[in-house]
Specification:
Layout: E1 18-20, H1 29-39, H2 41-53, E2 66-76, H3 85-99, E3 122-126, E4 139-143, E5 174-179, E6 187-190, E7 203-206, H4 224-233, H5 301-312, E8 337-341, E9 348-354, E10 364-369, E11 374-378, E12 385-391, E13 398-405, E14 410-417
């Protein structure tokens, strides 16, 4: 996350493994671990072991989409802090775009990094059932007398008896608390647990930076704070290795170039430093750097494998959660979109459908040649954003048509195979 003066803090609190961002302190991870080794060697070895486990991602090569059920705890004192359902829907959509590489700004990825940019195969939904099995929207609203959650006391937002809202079991839900964090702190996250998740496992995000913010939250107003924090929650570290402006540290991801320190602002060209002095330079567009929201646009294949490995091991219980999923409706003012890329194509392409929910479980995608002959079809599960890949490289060159049916309406588009 970023702060007013843009320094960042990553603190692992004793037994909590929390990532925190601050305008005052730099990363204290190594100092904390050194102190912990002296005061509690058992806890030190357990935490170091958990970190080492994450250095060797073993994600399966699979087409499975991992769905993470989410509960959003809105803890507010003022009307502004009580963010709307629409803002929450926007944030879930942003997460799904970012983790599936459906984000429209993916076209801005620098050429040198396009080859490693990844669809992580991870999606998020608002929980459909609470821990007792009762229907829920996945959104919990709690009034508080706390005006601002100071860093030293921010964990209290996770407890009802301390003015916040109790977590739902982290073995079944990703808990996200949205509240008024102290100035300069946009959010923080628990890293993957060493065993059963702690009761406070999840992420905390300032209400001004959740979803699509207003002008006052620029340049962190496009929902990438939450994308960044969930990256930490799934085991990623910052791209520069949290090593205090040195080339010695690493995020232990092979396809993220080593870099000296965090990047700020929104550069538009390749940037080099002493750690990566040659093209393509440092990967400042990565969600785990500190650039402006408008500048972030990718996870890498290596980060994808690490996050999926964490889901398959440290957070495997989420794959068997009974929380279910609520469907997010198209947002007011959204227009249904049918996007085909790349165009023109040699026959391998992806069809993206947005804001076109089906009135049935599946929607229909049909592809026709210029004479109206059906050449391929698919029935993806209905969702607010759908991405369907086709390999039709056997097709003859010419013009083809896509028609999508959601049970009531049609969308159509044409494309060229060459």
């Amino acid at each position: 996350m970023k702060s007013l003066f843009k320094p960042l803090l990553t603190i692992f609190f004793l037994l909590f493994n929390i990532v925190v961002f601050s305008q005052i302190q730099k990363c204290y991870t190594e100092g904390f671990l050194n102190s912990l080794q002296q005061t509690d060697p058992v806890a030190y070895e357990r935490m170091r072991s958990a970190q080492n486990d994450l250095l060797f991602p073993n994600a399966k090569i699979t087409d499975d989409i991992y769905m993470i059920p989410v509960v959003v705890h809105v803890v507010y004192k003022t009307e502004a802090q009580n963010i709307s359902d629409i803002e929450i829907f926007e944030q879930i959509n942003i997460l799904n775009e970012d983790f599936r590489r459906l984000n429209p700004d993916s076209i801005n990825t620098l050429p040198g990094f396009q080859g490693v940019a990844a669809d992580c195969g991870i999606e998020f939904c608002l929980a459909q059932f609470d821990p007792e099995g009762n229907p829920t929207t996945g959104i919990i609203r709690t009034y508080t007398d706390t005006s601002v959650w100071l860093l030293a006391f921010s964990e209290r937002v996770k407890y009802t008896n301390q003015g916040g809202d109790d977590a739902w079991p982290a073995i079944s839900y990703l808990n996200i608390w949205v509240c008024n964090l102290q100035d300069g702190i946009l959010g923080y996250a628990y890293g993957p647990p060493t065993g059963t998740p702690d009761v406070g496992d999840g992420i905390v995000v300032d209400y001004k930076n959740f979803g699509l913010g207003d002008v006052s939250s620029k340049p962190y107003d496009l929902g990438r704070t939450t994308t960044h924090e969930i990256g930490h929650w799934l085991g990623l570290t910052h791209t520069w290795g949290d090593d205090g402006a040195s080339c010695a540290g690493s995020d232990n991801i092979e396809d993220t170039p080593n870099q000296l320190e965090a990047t700020y602002g929104c550069p538009e060209v390749e940037i080099f430093d002493e750690c990566s002095p040659a093209s393509p330079g440092i990967m400042y567009q990565n969600y785990l750097d500190y650039t402006d929201d408008a500048c972030m646009n990718l996870f890498t294949e290596g980060q994808k494998n690490k996050m999926r490995s964490v889901i398959e091991t440290k957070r495997a219980s989420l794959l068997f959660s009974s929380a279910g999923c609520n469907e997010i409706p198209p947002l007011p003012g959204d227009i249904a979109e049918l996007i085909i890329y790349p165009v023109p194509t040699e026959g391998q392409f992806t069809i993206v459908i947005k804001n076109f929910l089906a009135l049935q479980e599946n929607m229909e995608i049909n592809i026709y040649d210029a004479l109206g002959h059906l050449v391929s079809s698919a029935n993806p599960t209905s969702a607010n954003t759908v991405a369907q890949y086709f390999d039709l490289s056997h097709l003859a060159t010419g013009c083809y048509f896509v028609r999508v049916f959601n049970g009531t309406y049609f969308l159509s588009e044409q494309f060229l195979v060459y």
